[in-house]
Amino acid sequence: MSHPLRLDRLRDFVGHLSELLDTSSDEASILDQGGRLLQRLVSHDDWLPEDFARPDPQRYQQYLLHADARQRFSVVSFVWGPGQSTPVHDHRVWGLIGMLRGAEYSQGFARAEDGRLSPEGAAVRLEPGQVEAVSPRIGDIHRVSNAYDDRASISIHVYGANIGAVRRAVFLEDGSEKPFISGYSNPYLPISGTCPKRTLRNEPTPQPCLQRDPPSPARPAGGGADRCPRGSALRRGTSAVRRQHPAVQAGAGDPCAGAAQRYRRHPLRRRRRAGRDRRRTPARTRLQRRGAARGGPGRLARGRR
Question: What is the pTM of this model?
């Protein structure tokens, strides 16, 4: 028997951290008190939805759990597949790393006199319930890896900004920097169920955020529960896009097929489409067509006689 998810733990953590940032701007205090709040959160493994705990065989995943409305902090679930690791990178903001499931190694790096990066001390192994802090003040460059080669690990990261939108850097062997913006891997947020804006990973073919509500098992037809969401991009999407809808993947049919057809056939849309076509047609062609419809050469052709 599965127990209900304790999402209230995540809500409480977000609320308490918001209160902390309202009352203090001292980084040392934030890392100390925020670390205790995060330790309390990761000491329980009964609140993270399965959609934010899925590993990927190709690379580690960064699932946004919460982004502060004032961009003061973000909470991210990092899911490490067996043997996966990050490149050497920085953050540019303070951060807290709490281990929820499995274990991971965090290896710090320091810049030598010749500009190259070298490991600083031994790698730190994080076990469930343990928390580590990073920041430009105390050490910000590191590499993180899954401690296991045969199973996934999950850590919860908290950063002092919307980390998926921060311009950061990975470091090459010669110490040179390669800028990057990480983005996120998830199509919706666990608390609000809304789509994160401009948070998809910067890849050639990112996964689109298609719906306003989190995926759920398809409900039986007739109750209206599987209707195409109002305002959804699925109404305007192609059949290939709509096939990603959870109801379609569950074999319950395409709830947006009729809505998409009505959308394309709507009189206003036909009128707008006709207006676009008219604007794209050169004036010479339009005048020639008008003359042909009237049985004559058209005003443009008559003027050249």
Answer: 0.64
